[in-house]
Amino acid sequence: MRAVFVFPAMAQAAVVALLDRLSPDQRHPWLVDGCLYPDLTGEDEHLYADWEPAAVRALSRARGDRPRWAVQVDVSGRVDGTVEVRRLTLTLLGRGGVAMDDYSDHVWTAEQIAADATVDGLRFFEFRGHYERNRLAR
């Protein structure tokens, strides 16, 4: 699975209500668009355990603090999922916040995601470009 971490600028209860509306029949994880598995994760569940220190520092700088929880969105490997993950991420960032994906240490804003911005040669959740870059680097 591929993953995106979303740090919404809304209360956890509002995020849960939003995910419940998007996935009324399944929870923890929710199922959105048939291929996304969002769930809440916190520091007590080792949120940053697999993160590079530079990524945690970049997130903390962008947010002004180290978030204590996030929405981890796992994306099924059976489908591309790019359209779906962008749509859900932008929905979760509707009141502000930031997101990070598995493919860079960049902290993405909703504006950058919506504009399809490129940072260091990659767009948000650009797994194909990331894999190709790594393949050519070998």
What does this structure look like?
This is SnoaL-like domain-containing protein. The protein has helices at residues 12-22, 53-63, 82-92, 110-114, 127-137; strands at 2-8, 36-42, 69-75, 97-101. The chain has 138 residues and is of the alpha+beta class. The protein has one domain (2-133). The protein has a four-stranded antiparallel sheet with strand order 2-3-1-4, with helices on both faces. It is globular and about 45 Å long.
Give the helices and strands, then pairings.
Blueprint: E1 2-8, H1 12-22, E2 36-42, H2 53-63, E3 69-75, H3 82-92, E4 97-101, H4 110-114, H5 127-137
Antiparallel strand pairs: 1-3, 1-4, 2-3
Fill in the keyword field for this structure.
single chain, 138 residues, alpha+beta, four-stranded antiparallel beta sheet, 5 helices, 19% strand, globular, SnoaL-like domain-containing protein
- Tally of strands: 4
Strand order of the largest sheet: 2-3-1-4
Category by helix and strand content: alpha+beta
Distance between the termini: 23 Å
Integer count of domains? 1
Task: Give the radius of gyration.
Answer: 14 Å
Instruction: Indicate the proportion of strand residues.
Output: 15-25%
Query: Helicity level, as a percent range?
Result: 25-40%
Q: What string, H for helix and E for strand, traces the elements in order?
A: EHEHEHEHH
Largest sheet: 4 strands, antiparallel
Briefly summarize what is shown.
The chain is an alpha+beta fold and 138 residues long.
